[in-house]
């Protein structure tokens, strides 16, 4: 009966990403390409950071547990920084691409705005990082066993899924904010994104103390969502205009 | 402590998985505890049946329940709310009634038996009451009133568990530490509090032992043949049980000349080499088999110098039959080969036969000479048998043993000799320590061990001291060996004046016993075996502990031969052979030397004894010790449904493993699914809503995005 857990976790972790993809990306080939390329850039950053981590693990004394833990923390933060570097690299690439696209386009403007690219690229980052953090957990959630024989929390699978969900959304919001920051040369925005990314990564190091990590991450996600909403052109006015019929969450689209 | 650290380490690693490369094993390590020291019960098949156990293809899972009292059994079989159960059995509950009740219940997913000697009943034999019932000599045509153990039930304690077919896996847990882990998991999660059902999460166990073969040997061989014929990747489903017999003779026999040997008259002295138990490759067979092997080996050693100096008129042919527990595989093959002139001697060469059965001398010092009442209806055979008995009685004269014969109407106990009698009325005796039914209370079970054979040592001895310590069992077996050697010598026509020179060495017996029932990896065995075997890690036949006597699949699994077969072969070579000064390459290829004769002798390159502070000096031993194939003729004749020959095969399998873990409650699983579905639906709704209103929502943007595509 652990098929239920598998599907439950899969829906939690990838449900929002799936619906975003279906309604906002899938119909436009250019957006699909940008999404895939974004995912690829995230993969590149992972490749590099895992290489560094692997070398440092091999080079260090595997008996020294304190050193191993320090290395782990170093690896996490290094990886976060590398991801942001690749986000910037991807931004540069897309900027170049828009000029090219505009040049060959019939109209004067590019077929896709920078803001849209930011959102799509962020989602690409988010989907790939979500996939990487979740797939192995998902394969083990098929059972027959569940976590806990060593005294761990039995809510491991659902918290892992919730964490992945938050991460996917966070990457999307960060993508929007980061590109916005780059576009307008507001370096403090970029700094905020990087530092919040570092903070979330640090919070995940608190696991398996889920009470310590999950709520702060969700608070950050919510704040980021609101910020991203406003920075990408949303306003209270437009919100209230839409919300005459229904209240919507601050999710950027 | 180490474990704790590693668990913590895993805990540390998990959060990192969100950001760094994921090692797939880590989550698995958090969920599962693999149990390594487990022994399965596997499926065996014969012409008509399948026996043993198997799990489903993907393993059988059940909630753990330790069977400690009778009420636990009711809980498992009727009242417990979490079926199916994986039952952990204490030794004392591993008996027929409990197992059969579980077999007939659909609420049992599998059984794991804790192997320990505490709570062991005073008798336990999973074998049948009438071993090798249908392939002995007694049948409709030969002593019908003696057939099927009508006169004497040889193994009255037999409960037949080994011959049941269980639809669930049954494993034995050998490692005390892992048993503790399982118990702790059970106590932490599954223990009933005041009789109420335990709360989730519950501790569960999964056993994998899926067997490829089904129904019977006929079906399985047909399917294998079909695959061989039509499939590009044929997959064998079952293999015949097979290995090698070991034989030697006091006068070397020409191995290249098959069929009747002119001017040879041989007295066969035989015993069996194998045993079995409920679990796979767990057959200590101490009293059932080792007592016979050790006796015969010691007798051969005692006889050897005398037969060289004053050779008796007849040759003495020693044979160790493999696979006798499974309908006489070894002896039926040798008889079959003799019959079609494919062996160094034929049945005409056989003068008489003496077989050593179970001679553990458990209680008292009396031995019994069993003979076949049907062939003794023939006068000449009867005379011969009586003379044999007389010779044996007189040989026992100077020994502290009494030798007697059971009532004349009693048939032979299960013995290889029966296979010879099926072909020819050969005079012969089977020497055992039981008058009627077996004295061995743990026949063909995993408890037929050193303790059962009374091989116990005073505390505080080092392994090397134990090796040469002459226990009471060793002393009494040495007496039996002396008796056997002397009566064989006289039986072969030797001069009675030499009898006093034939005495089995209790020290050899002690060493043999130590090697076969306590520790095969000892200095003496190492010195007798070839150097490549004694090197650590190269070959597993010298692992720690006593050897196991289940015949197995011979060459496929064990390399050249089963470990016990190899031990006996090399011990024989060292006891009866002569040391030569050949080099290693010459020893392996002696046919190139004109002085050596490969037809009469085998050549063994052995390690030699290790001296105190230097490595041993290997040398070459020349001995007339041979192996002959022990595979049932049924597989050569392709008669897989044979009623005359053994048809036992062992099923193949992919994986045998066991693990424990926790299972979550259905509520938690459903909650996860519910949250998942809710998140999915909500996000679909919200995204659809936002994307349809995107123009409106983000209208205040300075650069107007193009929203429609």
TrEMBL record, chain A:
Short name of one Pfam family? Aph-1
Q: What is its main location?
A: membrane
Q: What gene name is given for the protein in this entry?
A: LOC113109542
Q: Which GO terms describe its biological process?
A: Notch signaling pathway; protein processing
Say what the protein does.
Potential subunit of the gamma-secretase complex, an endoprotease complex that catalyzes the intramembrane cleavage of integral proteins such as Notch receptors.
Alphabetical GO CC annotations of the entry are:
gamma-secretase complex
Concerning its family, UniProt says:
Belongs to the APH-1 family.
Q: How does it sit in the membrane?
A: Multi-pass membrane protein
Its keywords, alphabetically, are: Membrane, Notch signaling pathway, Transmembrane, Transmembrane helix
Where are the bilayer-spanning segments? Answer: 6-25, 32-56, 71-90, 117-135, 155-179, 186-206, 218-239
Protein's UniProt name:
Gamma-secretase subunit APH-1
The organism encoding this protein is Carassius auratus (Goldfish)
Localization recorded for this chain is: Membrane
Task: Describe, as the record does, how this protein assembles with itself and its partners.
Answer: Component of the gamma-secretase complex.
From TrEMBL, chain B:
GN (gene name): LOC113112036
Arranged from A to Z, the UniProt key words for this protein are: Glycoprotein, Membrane, Notch signaling pathway, Signal, Transmembrane, Transmembrane helix
Q: Where in the cell is it found?
A: Membrane
Provide the leader sequence positions: 1-24
* Stated name of the protein: Nicastrin
Membrane topology, from the record: Single-pass type I membrane protein
Matching SUPFAM superfamilies: Zn-dependent exopeptidases
Q: Which InterPro entries match?
A: Ncstrn_small, Nicastrin
Recorded family membership: Belongs to the nicastrin family.
Q: Name one Pfam family in it.
A: Ncstrn_small
What are the GO cellular component annotations? plasma membrane
Ranges that cross the membrane: 670-690
Sorted alphabetically, the Gene Ontology BP terms of this entry are: Notch receptor processing; Notch signaling pathway; protein processing
Domain of life per record: Eukaryota
Nicastrin small lobe domain segment(s):
40-213
